[in-house]
Every structure is written in structure tokens, then in C-alpha cells.
Amino acid sequence: MTRATCLPRRARRVYLIALALGILLLVQACQPDKVYRQQAFVFGTLVEIRIWGAGQERARAASQAVLRDFDKLHEILHAWKPGALGRVNQLLATTEWATVSPSTLPIIEQSKRLYSMSDGLFNPAIGRLIALWGFQNDGLPEHPPQQSEIDKLLAAPATMDQVLIDGIRIRASNPSVRLDLGGIGKGYAIDLGIQRLEEHGIHSAIINAGGDLHAIGGKGERPWVIGIRHPRKDGILATVATRDNESVFTSGDYERFFEHQGSRYHHILDPRTGRPARGVTSVTVIHHNATEADAASTALFIAGADAWHAVARKMGIRYVMLVSSDGTVHMNPAMAERIHFEDEPPAVVVSGPLQ
Amino acid sequence: MNPDSKLAGLRHMLTTADWVVVAGALLFLPVLYSYYWPGSARAELVEIQVADQEPMHVPLHIDRRLAIQGELGTSEIQIRDHRVRFTRSPCEAKLCIASGWHEHAGETVACLPNRVSVSIVSSDSVYDAINY
Questions:
Q1: Are A19 and B17 inside 8 Å of each other by CB?
Q2: Single pTM value for the model
Q3: Which segments of chain A are extended strands (E)?
């Protein structure tokens, strides 16, 4: 008997197939992760960029280009530090026509458009109100402002309709107008960042700026999976798989807030009352454009459980999830189909369709 | 039959391919170990980054407290029961502490004023990003 005939031929084949599979698994396990990840403190927040399948060098170069852009944008758009927007605000206070840095105009024009679409709920002209509440500061205030101070500002309310643009000239018809683009700046930066990635040939990536993000492509055949933070508990409320070219933006009352005499005062101010919007803990919007998603999540938060649907329709938003203060989750049917809850929420209200 | 003759018999019974299979299986064991053994190198890590420095990584399954020097001062980070949180921070708002425990791969909490971020990372994370 020769050694080659010790085991039946079929058994040897099985062994060889098992061996090939083992080697394949080993090679797979040893492959470097296809997701490139870079994290940096820019734009006044923590920005994470994930890029799939582009190779380390190209991914690194693209990420660094985005982060450099974010640094520049942060200087341009900062609401209370010297910069291009600060200069715009000085000029608006004069109510005279003035030439401004062209870098500031596209976002101001978008803000005017989104102000109108949101029935004035997204209103970046209320910079003085935001400053009065102490939210134009690196720290947080200890108490709310006097109601009389709020009333003074509400007596001649600042609106984006009062911001007039003619070419590269701008003026305000109300000297109270002060732009604070905190409700749109991250979205605007993310949109530009995604464009920059695509210029570098990147087609599968996530740019996540302080928890708000835009995703393009996926991880090969699989989608990017996003966990949406629970507004009141540690951990995740729900997950959603993004489709190509989608933003996921959430406005929550837990992002910036202070407590005074047992009440929570957060940074999302209702321009109608001059006070933090009540009745909602978070609003999540999925949309194809980060700038619009950013503005919409703020506007729908202010609109509240009763009015979010009408405002979302007007803004052309197709996916909304609103968590009200009692924990009830309000969604439109298209969003409800896409959302997977980690634990069942206390109650879910599915509205009529948005389109 | 003595042990030597048993081994000789085994040598006669196995072909070269059989030996390769056995060797391959033995080589594959460490990979399986790292995938499935709790607390192995494959398990979740806590990634701590200060400003734009290279991040450091520590395992999530070993309870400990870490003092991290940021731009304003020292942030204290606690790891316990496969969770991580900020317990002390030199920042004013203390939102990093208020955000509580974090346990899911993909979660990040940051102290922006102190420029310290803490992320849970894992190659087999369910989440690619956390929205908040």
C-alpha cells in the first residue's frame, strides 16, 4: 500500500477544500480594514471622516483637504469671534448698503430661502437674542435673561426678510438683525466637504460633524448604518441605514443647555417667543442636502408635535422623526419604514404621508 | 503496540496534504481565538484623542480610570463593565460628563473645550456613525 492511498481520494479532496477555505479566511482576516477614518477638532466641534475602499493615501489627502476647508469656514462663519461674518454683522447694524466678503453670501442667500420655506421658524437673524441668552459663548449661562430684555428684542423682531442682497452688497432694514448661522453652518460645511471628497474621487464616505452627518455610497454593497442617540437615556434610540447621498441631522435639547431652578434651558430658541422651544426633545431629519437638513431639524423642533408635519411639507422634507417631551415618537410613514428601534419607545404616532 | 510504533503508523496513514491540513488548522487557531475569545485583541477598544495628536487605544474590557491631559487641564475617564464615561473635566459646561456612559461601538463623546475625545471602536461595529 502506498502512502497516497492511505485515505480515500474523496476524503483528501474534502481536506484540501477545507484547507483552501481556511487560507481564504486567514487572508480575509489579515486584510487591512477598508474603512479609512480620521478625526479632528475643527469647526468648533469634533469632525470624523470615514472613507471606504479608496486606499489610504487618497483617503488621507481627501480628508485633510476637507478639514482644511472646515478650518477656513469656521473662521468665516463664527458668530461671535472676529471674522467675515462678524464684519457682515457690523455692517448690517448700520442699515446702509455695504460690500461684504463674497465667501459669506451663498450661505446667507440659502438662509433667506430656508427662512421663507420654514415660515420663519428657522431664523438666523436672531443673533442678538441668542447672545442675550448667553449661547454665543464657549461656556454656558447660569440663568435665563430678564423677560423685559427678551420683550425689547421681540418688539422689533429681526427676520431674514429684512436682510437685502444686491450682488455682493448687503444691508438690513432692521438694525436689530445679527446673523448667527449656528443652525445651518455645519450642514453647509458638510455639503462643501462632500463636494471636496468627490473632487478627490471619493464616492463612499461619511462626514460626521459633531453628530450630524452626510453619507455617500456605502461599504461596498452594504449601506452605512447610523445609530441615532436616545435624547433622554444613555445609548441608542434607533438605527437607520442610509441610501446614497443622504444627510442625517438631529436637533436636540440635550446638545447645549443649562439648568436653573429645576428648569432646562436649551439653545434652540423659538423666534416667536424669544425663549427655548418647548415640548420636544429631539428631531431627526433625513434629507439629500445637509444644509437643508440642518435648517429643517431646527425649524421642525420649534414647530413642535402639532405643526412639524406642515412645516416639513413646505420645506420638502421626506423623512422626519420627532420625539416629544413625554417620549412619544412622531414619524411620517416613510420614516417609520426605515427606522429600527433598539428598544420599543413608549408610544409611536405615525402621521399622514409627507408627499 | 508501543508509542513509537503508533507514531510510525500515523505517519504511514497520513498523506502530505493531511499534514498540511493539520498544520493549517493549528495556524488558524490564534485567528479563531482572537475573534471569539472574550476580551481578546479583536474586542472593542476605547480610542482617546487629544487635539490633533495620534489617538491612544485601551481595551474596553479592563476596568480603569485614566487621567488625560487636554488643552485646558485634566479630563478623567472611567472604563467599567465594558462602558466608558467622563468623570471629571476642566470645561465649564460639563456636557461631556452629563452625556453619561457610552457602550456601543461607534459612539463618541468629546470635551470640545479641552479637545479630548473618547470613542468606542471595533472592527465589527454595528454602527458606522452616531447621530445626535
A1: yes
A2: 0.82
A3: 35-42, 45-52, 98-99, 163-166, 169-172, 205-209, 212-216, 225-229, 236-241, 246-252, 257-260, 263-266, 269-270, 275-276, 280-287, 319-324, 329-331, 340-341, 348-350
